[in-house]
Amino acid sequence: MLRQYCKRTVSMKSTRNWLLAATTFTCSLALSANTVFAGTTYPDCTLNPCPAECECTCSYLPNPDGDGIGDFNGIIEKMDYLNDGDPKTTTDLGVTGIWLMPINPSPSYHGYDVLDYYDVNPDYGTMDDFKRLLEEAHAHGIYVIMDLVLNHTAVEHEWFKEARDHPESARHGWYVWADENPGYKGPWGQDVWYPTIAGYYYAIFWSGMPDLNYTNPEVTAEMQNVAAFWLQDVGVDGFRLDAARHLIEEGEKQENSDATHTWWENFRPQYKAINPNAITVGEIWTTNRAVAKYVEGDELDMAFNFDLASQIRRASKSICANLAEGFGKQSYSKAEFKRFILMSIGSADEMRVWIRYCVDLGYIDEATWQRWRDEYEAIAKMLQGLWAKV
Q1: Cα 204 from Cα 285, distance rounded (Å)
Q2: I want to staple 72 with a disulfide (CB 3.0 to 4.6 A). Which of 133, 179, 237, 293 is the partner?
Q3: Do 88 and 117 fall within a single domain?
Q4: Which residues are catalytic?
Q5: How many CB atoms lie within 10 A of CB 191?
Q6: What is the Rg, in whole angstroms, of the alpha carbon atoms belonging to the chain?
């Protein structure tokens, strides 16, 4: 059975603060109502109020150095606004945990194609900057988890370039290869086999993200070392595990394989031995029935509850529509409600649930939403401007 859900409403003194809370951070349900919980003791969801966590894309946060890209120092600069350490005040957001979207070097804006698992993206600062961020967060009662992309690397990663260019090397076995195109498609009908001079390589998402081969013990050992590095040497408190259901393919079975479950079972004691309170959140975008298997045994601590997010949206057209409409009209003007809704509930991988509320309730039409998507970078700049006024 699914373990539990919890929800926390952050108390703010003013509409302006709550608006900034919603638009500056993606107020994710990653570790609250949008999460399926295993029997972990951390975070403690018996607390009242339940711990509140925020999803954070560094590049869209304050940038004290003025280069136009948010960074670690920008987060540090606003740490008191996230949580001033005093539970009696209501001028901060009361955040107790931060989930950082990918911070490793990457050729893309989203960072989910990693170039180096042992370093940080220089756009965000240095490793020393990041360690200072962790120190400041912990001093403010905030724990920090980071996105760990285990399923695949960037096609530009040195491992893959060696594997492709030198098929006789040991690195070749770090990826999934076939001499001829096996011919089958991916789970949603996409191409998954791509040609090179060394044969066809497997990449479930796109050609720029070749999948690692976790049937190779060398790959498993290396990625366990990666996890240990961030937990022990750097000091993060856990990981959001991207694409957790796709780790190991069994022929044409490319999701939720028995081998994938076994790998996560073996991974758990590795990171718990380093920090028993370390937390893992699985991004497993499938039905709750399938997700439950990852959190009810000895695999992951938590997993996103995408089914619940979908149900919230469907409910917006019935009973909850009245509640949401009343909330919007009573608390904000129509313009303010649009801004509040923009970057709210949901994970980074789905259209925000609250955005769909807005569309369903007529606050935002589909054309406007599409235009906002096209102007995402401009919106990001706007959010940085809002931060500067806090």
Answers
A1: 14
A2: 133
A3: yes
A4: 242, 283
A5: 13
A6: 21
- Residue range of the domain that includes 64: 15-149+220-389
Task: For residues 255 and 171, state if they share a domain.
Answer: no
Which own/partner pairs from 216-222 qualify as long-range (CB within 8 Å, at least 24 positions apart)?
Answer: 216/173, 216/174, 218/170, 218/173, 218/174, 219/174, 220/263, 220/266, 222/174
What are 66-91's pLDDT values in tens digits? 665 678 998 898 899 888 988 888 88
In a domain, 2, yes or no: no
The half-sphere exposure of 248 on its side-chain side, counting CA atoms within 13 A, is 15
Instruction: Note the pLDDT of residue 20.
Output: 31
CATH number at residue 102: 3.20.20.80
Nearby residues of 319 by Cβ (< 8 Å), 6 or more positions away: none
Give the residue carrying structure tokens 């001033």: 84
Distance CA 349, CA 192 (A): 20
Say if residues 140 and 158 touch (Cβ distance below 8 Å). Answer: no
**What is the predicted pLDDT for the residue at 374?**
58
pTM exceeding the 0.85 threshold for the entire prediction: no
Polymer length of the chain: 390
pLDDT value of residue 363: 59
**What token pair was written down for 65?**
């150095």
**Which candidate, 155, 127, 269, 285, places its Cα nearest to that of 212?**
155
pLDDT computed for residue 17 by the predictor: 32
Q: What is the pLDDT of residue 139?
A: 94
Ranges of the chain with pLDDT below 70: 1-69, 309, 312-364, 369-390
105 exposure class (CB count in 10 Å sphere: 0-12, 13-18, 19+):
buried
CB atoms within 10 A of CB 79: 19
